[in-house]
Amino acid sequence: MKRIFLLVWVLVSVFACSEKPKNDKELVENEEVKEIKEIQPVVEFGYDLNDFVVIKDTIKSGDSFGELLARNHISYPRVYEIANKARDTFDIRKLQIGKPYTILCSKDSLQAAQCFIYQPNSIDYVVLDFTDSIITYKDRKPVKFVEKKVSGVITENSSLSQTMLEAGMGYDVAERMARVFDYTIDFFTLQEGDKFKLIYDEKFIDDTIYAGSGRIKGALFEHRGKEFYAFDFVTDKKKGARGYYDEDANEMKRFFLKAPLDIFRITSRYSPRRFHPVQKRWKAHKGTDYAAPTGTPIRVTASGTVIKSSYTAGNGNYVKVKHNNTYTTQYLHMSKRLVKPGQYVQQGDIIGLVGSTGLATGPHVCYRFWKNGKQVDPLREVLPPSDPLDENLKEEFFKAIKPLKKRLDAIPYDDFVDEELVTEL
């Protein structure tokens, strides 16, 4: 009997002494819970921004490198030392208004600047690190290239720019395409049914921030039933020289541009008889008038030497350029002349700005063209062609453009937009 009692007593004691399971509420109440929150790094320009007091702003009028650092507790002798050390990497005098900069400051009570980062564009940046020793270098953000394929058709109620925007292209792409075909197509004589196809890259930073377009890889423009192809091709890999060539390896670039302006409308053509709007009488008009807003840049249509840059009552501000023994061009009614006599200018250089000086009723440039000393209509002239691609490069060229031309031809003419290939730089 005693043994039974003893056994029961032992079992009860063990049960009574055993720890009672706790529910979640009791665990929280009876145990100290420490939550350790890990700080995630915020990395930009190769720095963890959590380690600094960060100042981000843009260059304002009157800002200088010295003043920006002085505001953040850097002495002028130290500023001079930093600027002198950085001169081989970056000229601190070239800070441009509106460009972003970042100053990384210490997290102590003084919060003195330790690093200055300047961004001349959305991709490239310059680092001046003077935490201890002075380190300066240039770098760029990782860029993702997304290949785009687009097409469009000019309709009765649409312009080229409108059609291109509706196809998903930005203004920068439209300008690039216009430059590619600048020598072969007069974009202001387009008609309903003209159409185009493009393959080009768009650049993105951090996968989402649009950073503009890259070069056009290949293009096809059908104008008045005739097809014009253009392909980007590197002619010298060491020097980085490249250009656009058609499907027969002829360079797209020509001796003359089609027009002296990027954006314009033709208001008056070369004519043996025209009623002058200012002089109110009939007379010959030996030029082509391109209307554009005041201040629009005027491009010289071919390389040559400026033989006149002057002003007359009729011409207003004007520039005349001799290209060779055969061709001379003249640009009238400028608001401002930007070149001087004797100066050599290259095709596409800005030589002045559109205005309405002299005998002009509104802002435009009157473009005049001489061949062998006689004024002619440039829009009717058969102008000198470009040189073909070097024979040693033709085999490589035809091999490179074959798949690209096939892809261009396969793009349908509709509102088609396709992101096909993603690469990173």
TrEMBL record:
Csd3-like second N-terminal domain ranges (all copies): 146-272
Cross-referenced Gene3D superfamilies: 3.10.450.350, Glucose Permease (Domain IIA)
Keyword annotations: Hydrolase, Metal-binding, Metalloprotease, Protease, Zinc
Record has Protease as a keyword: yes
Cofactor(s) essential for the protein: Zn(2+)
PANTHER family xref list: CELL DIVISION PROTEIN YTFB, PEPTIDASE-RELATED
Compartment(s) of residence: Cell envelope
Descriptive protein name: Peptidase M23
PROSITE patterns in the cross-refs: PROKAR_LIPOPROTEIN (PS51257)
